[in-house]
Amino acid sequence: MKTPIADRIRPKKLDDVVGQSHLLQKNRPLRRIIESGQISNMIFFGPSGTGKTTVARIIAENAGMTLYKLNGTTASSSDIRDIIAQTQTFSGCEGILLYLDEIQYLNKKQQQVLLEYIENGDITLIASTTENPYFSVFNALISRSTVFEFKPVSADEILKAVRRAFAILESENGYHITMEDGVAQHISAACGGDVRKAVSAAELCTLAGDIEKDGVFITLETAKSLSQRSSMRYDRDGEQHYNILSAFQKSIRGSDENAALHYLARLLEASDLISVCRRLLVIASEDIGLAYPMAVVIVKSCVDSALQLGIPEARIPLAQAVILLCTSPKSNTAVTAVDAAIEDVRKGNYGEIPAYLMDGHYSGASSLGRSDGYKFPHNYKNNYVSQQYLPDELKDKKYYRFGSNKQEQAALEYRKKISSQ
User: Fold this and answer.
1) Alpha carbon distance 353, 358 (integer Å)
2) Strands 210-212 and 215-218, bridge-based pairing
3) For burial by CB atoms within 10 Å, which of 57, 78, 180, 193 has the most?
4) DSSP letters along 301-363, please?
5) Contacts for 342-347: CB closer than 8 Å, 24+ residues apart
6) Looking at residue 89, what is its pLDDT?
7) Burial per residue of 208-218, b for 16 or more beta-carbon CB atoms within 10 angstroms, e otherwise
8) Residue 90 burial (CB count, 10 A)
9) Distance between CA atoms of 337 and 286, rounded to whole angstroms?
10) In 23-46, which positions are buried (b, 16+ CB within 10 angstroms) versus exposed (e)?
């Protein structure tokens, strides 16, 4: 079977690796480590197709070490022990570098087997994972490794790899490849920062191109149909899901409607309607709250409309809700107040409810003093009467602090008015 083009064009030198300039530029820490030849244990963290395996291979070749590769989804403890056994053979005399892809799928026992040989220096480990290792890899391995984050490759950088792929395909097949304007650029932008996916798309486009007298012609329509629609990475159960939702809420909290609409678009393109709706309902009370109490009512209506309409029409009421929240005054006094109260309760600071506030609607309640002495506010001017409602132990506690916005300041003035009668 023919080797995939991603492997056929795999760079042999660091300078040929596209992207990851934050790691591989001259004088960057990872570049210095690789060039020193003194390789330590590392964990490469980042999306697929961003160069983790390529860099690991280059490291092994530069360090003069024997490279073994395992995948955490299929590796067994015996596979690991077979590699460990090579440390005592001629092939392992210069050192063994184990590249372990998807390390998060190894169980604790398997990781412990590795740990013993990493600690004594028999094996140097370069592990990769598409998930945040601080969430998915055992701390004992992380503490003995340096974590490097690989980022999605920009479309401009991927374009270099796509053009190189087309040049190699021309050379291998012995015919000329021509294409409509924008084909290479579309492939580069449509593959979500994944170099492997982009060069594979280039090969598919070549195979599906229009046969001409002197070669193959690739139309933009062909490129669009064969390039996977994955310009945005999103995993509903992964870290990126929470990163986008976090950026979404922080943009609304920061009153930046343009950024908030951007993150809304990313969530909608991933068809994650439920997460958007839940987060907007939270934001309406958590970040706008008492500064504009009607916001939660309007947002609830927008959310209901969105859920009834479904995607793509849902984007319209959701955009309305996002812009409303971004341009509304902000207050988090409600959440800080209730969190302060919850903190007291969790610490056991709650005391006895005053007897006059207790339920008096049953036979024998009066003999226990229940509800005796309670002052009914509606019997007093402005429907207010000064009365202690908190337990004695907390009678002077202030959980809520009026915000500086117009709505809460008006409420404060009303409170001062009725309490000064």
Assistant:
1) 7
2) antiparallel
3) 193
4) HHHHHHHHH-TTTTHHHHHHHHHHHHHS----HHHHHHHHHHHHHHTT---PPPGGGS---ST
5) 344/394, 344/397
6) 63
7) ebeeeeebbbb
8) 8
9) 11
10) bbeeeeebbebbeeeebebbbbbb
| Residue in this structure with the two tokens 């107040």, named with its chain if needed | 337
Place of tokens 């080797």: 3
Per-residue pLDDT at 313: 94
Distance CA 114, CA 108 (A): 10
Phi, then psi, of 241 in degrees rounded to 5: -55, -50
How many Å apart are CA 255 and CA 250, to the nearest integer?
9
Secondary structure (DSSP) of 31-72: HHHHHHT----EEEES-TTSSHHHHHHHHHHHHTPEEEEEET
* Cα-based distances in Å from 78 to 65, 85, 120: 22, 10, 19
Question: Taking Cα atoms as reference points, which of 105, 109, 135, 111 lies closest to residue 125?
Answer: 111
Q: What tokens does 32 get?
A: 């210095």
CA distance 278 to 91: 57
Determine the length of the chain.
421
Query: Is residue 24 a contact partner of residue 55, using CB atoms and an 8 Å limit?
Result: yes
- Residue 380 CB burial class (10 angstroms; 0-12, 13-18, ≥19): middle
Q: What is the pLDDT of residues 145-157, one digit of tens each?
A: 889 999 888 889 8
User: For residue range 184-236, what is the model confidence (pLDDT) as tens digits?
Assistant: 999 988 887 888 888 888 889 988 888 887 888 999 988 888 876 555 555 55
List the chain residues with pLDDT less than 50: none
Say how far apart CA 403 and CA 291 lie, in whole Å: 8
- The one-letter code for the residue type at 255 is S
133 upstream amide cis, omega within 30 of 0: no
Phi and psi angles of residue 388, each rounded to the nearest 5 degrees, phi first: -80, 125
Nearest alpha-carbon partner for 233 in 261, 268, 191, 262: 191
Tokens 């919850």 -> residue: 342
